[in-house]
Amino acid sequence: MIMRVLSLFLVASVVRAWAPVAPKQQQPQTSRRGFLEKSVMATAGAATLLTRAESALAIPAVGAKAPSFDLPNSRGDGSTSLNALTGSGKWTVLYFYPGAFTTGCTLEAKSFQRDLDQYRNLNAQIVGVSVDPPEKNAQFCSSTGLDFFMLSDIGGTVSKQYGSALSIPGFGSFSNRQTYLIDPKGNIRWVFTDVESRIARHSGEVLEKLNELKA
C-alpha cells in the first residue's frame, strides 16, 4: 500500500513539473534529454522516498560481499568486472548516477575529479555506473575531463542488485544516486544513500569516510 502511494506521488510530481503554464511563463521547447533531466531532478525528493521504500531490503548490508558484475566500460576496451577492480588491490568508490550530462551528475563527477589525487593517495579508485550506453558515457568523460571511467548498466540489472534502481512510469529506468565503498576483498564497507541533497559536498564526505575506515 505504501509503495503504491509513493509511486503515485512520484508520477504526480512529474506531471506537476511539466503541467502547462500561463502564457507569460511559457518556456521554450525542450529537447528530450532536457525533458528527462528536468523530470528526474524535479522528482528527486519523491524518488528518494520511493527508492528507500523499495530498496530497504535490497541494499546489500555493510560487511556483505558486493554483488558481482561485468559491465561495458567507457574506455572502449570492453567490459570491467568487480573482480578486476578488487583484484587491483584498491578500494573502489562505486557510485551510481541517473544520467550523463545532467546538471547534478556533472557536478558530482567534477567533484570526484577535483579530489582524484586524494583518492589515489588513499589507494582508492572512482568508478561510475549508469544505464547510459558506453558511447554516451565515453562522451561524458571526455567532455567533462574525467580521468576515471564509467560502466553501462543497460537494463538496470546491476542497479537492482545494489538497491539503486529507480523506475519512473512513462520515463523508464535509471540508477538512483547512491555510492558504495568496497574494500580490496570485495566487501561493502559503507553505503551513501542520501546523496541527492548533498551532491556538492558528497566527495568530501566520501573521503572522510574512507579515511575513517582505513584508520
Describe it for me?
The protein has 215 residues and is α/β, with parallel strands linked by helices. It is built from 9 helices and 9 strands. It has helices spanning 2-17, 32-42, 44-55, 82-87, 103-114, 116-121, 134-144, 157-161, 199-214; strands spanning 70-72, 79-81, 91-96, 124-130, 149-152, 165-168, 172-175, 178-182, 188-192. The strands form 3 sheets. Strands 5-4-3-8-9 form a 5-stranded mixed beta sheet. A two-stranded antiparallel sheet has the order 1-2. Strands 6-7 form a two-stranded antiparallel ribbon. β6 (165-168) and β7 (172-175) form a beta hairpin. α1 packs antiparallel against α3 and α5 packs parallel to α9. The longest helix has 16 residues, at 2-17. 34% of the residues are buried. Residues 1-57 have low confidence and may be disordered.
Question: How much of the sequence is in beta strands?
Answer: 15-25%
Question: Roughly how many Å is the radius of gyration?
Answer: 17 Å
Major sheet description: 5 strands, mixed
Question: What is the string of SSEs from the N terminus onward?
Answer: HHHEEHEHHEHEHEEEEH
Total helices: the number is 9
* Tally of DSSP β-strands: 9
User: Residue ranges: pLDDT <50 for 5 or more in a row?
Assistant: 1-57
Strand order of the largest sheet: 5-4-3-8-9
Mean pLDDT: 81
State the separation between the terminal residues, measured CA to CA: 44 Å
What structural category do the secondary elements indicate? alpha/beta
Shape: globular
Q: Which bin fits the share of residues in helices?
A: 40-55%
